[in-house]
Design brief:
Methylamine Dehydrogenase, Chain H, 5-stranded antiparallel sheet, 2 helices, single chain, 357 residues, globular, mainly beta
Length: 357
């Protein structure tokens, strides 16, 4: 944690030197409404909200992996599915079928939390998205095949496709087009959801960004918000109809998942540095950083509850990293460059955050 905070402080210094500290310290309407220390074992990555079913899904990975389920309004426990070690999960509200990014994929009943079956897939399942256009689940992988598409009602693989690079977050326009931020190519893949073919790549390399992560979408005005981590945390705002860059804005460090709230016309990003950035869309060509809210270090993924406008995130507290191993007999550093291992999670510290006005 200490090392993480030092890196965060250094990042703030960089932002200040770039004249961006005003956004970092800006006041605004959002605040942390509630934090719930729910504990539990295992690592964590993505968080998902079933708005219609009023449930929050938190996959935990590792030897004690489980899918934790919470009431979306109160953050109280609503059950769990044991032995499901996954990074992501999503629910189809029509079929009430849930899917977790285990390998094979685990399909479960969102009403009873009972496992229905497993589905064999290739690659390394990571991100996951429901496309309401045709009730299909998109499983994203940083290995070929980059995307596996599953029928949410039947739980069968419809097909796979090559996105041209490692995918991060995907969004659907609900009308037959899926957009995917390609993390290693500085572009957004445009996919025909019916034929499962890539029809275009929107190149944003002219903005001199790399390390793509989150992707948000304003369906009404056809605007994409593509987030990048290097060399400075940046969102590239793109016309979804022609791929032209509209503008760029700064964000916080370590953006992972993001969302667009059509009720407030805001793009929202969760950032591992301990912040959440709100970008206001005043018109399809006018955007500004509205607020940067301090949350907790490590709260890098989020889910939007479109019914209440609340944003859900999660993180934990960590102890100091273990010391590096002793050098080998010839004096060379041992292990991974002589560095210590990952800082251990403090038992019982895993926390859910509810953000709103």
């Amino acid at each position: 944690m200490k090392r993480f905070l030092l890196l965060f402080a250094a990042g703030l210094a960089i932002l200040a030197s770039a004249g961006l500290v005003r956004q970092v310290l800006a006041d605004g309407p959002y605040k942390v409404l509630k934090s719930a220390k729910v504990g539990g074992e295992g690592g964590f990555d993505y968080i998902s909200a079933d708005v219609e079913g009023r449930r929050l899904y938190v996959p935990r990975n590792g030897p004690m992996g489980q899918l934790m389920v919470f009431n979306l309004d109160t953050l109280e426990s609503a059950g769990s599915i044991a032995n499901v070690s996954a990074g992501g999960a999503v629910v189809d509200p029509k079929s009430h079928h849930g899917f977790s990014t285990t390998k094979p994929i685990t399909m479960w009943d969102s009403s009873t939390l009972q496992v229905i079956k497993t589905i064999d897939v290739d690659g390394r399942p990571d991100g996951i998205m429901l496309d309401p256009y045709n009730e299909r689940i998109w499983v994203l992988s940083h290995m070929v095949p980059y995307a596996t598409v599953i029928d949410a009602k039947e739980g069968t693989v419809v097909g796979t496709l090559d996105l041209g690079g490692g995918p991060e977050q995907a969004v659907s326009d609900g009308k037959g087009t899926v957009y995917v931020n390609i993390s290693d190519m500085a572009n957004v893949a445009v996919v025909d959801a019916k034929t499962m073919t890539v029809t275009a790549h929107y190149d944003v390399s002219a903005s001199k960004v790399s390390g793509g992560s989150g992707l948000a979408f304003d369906a009404k005005n056809h605007v994409l918000f593509a987030y990048y981590r290097q060399p400075m945390p940046t969102v590239v705002i793109v016309n979804a109809q022609n791929g032209k860059t509209i503008t760029t804005l700064p964000t916080g460090m370590g953006v992972d998942t993001v969302a667009f709230n059509p009720a407030t016309m805001e793009a929202i990003s969760a950032e591992g540095g301990g912040s959440m950035t709100f970008i206001k869309e005043s018109s399809p060509t006018s955007f500004a950083v509205e607020q940067t809210l301090q949350t907790m270090p490590g709260a890098k993924t989020m889910a939007l509850d479109t019914k209440t406008g609340h944003i859900l995130s999660m993180t934990a507290e960590f102890g100091p990293p273990p010391p590096p191993p002793p050098p080998s007999a010839d004096g060379a550093p041992a292990g991974r460059g002589g560095r210590g291992g990952r800082a251990p999670m403090i038992p019982g510290s895993f926390t859910l955050l509810m953000i709103g006005k």
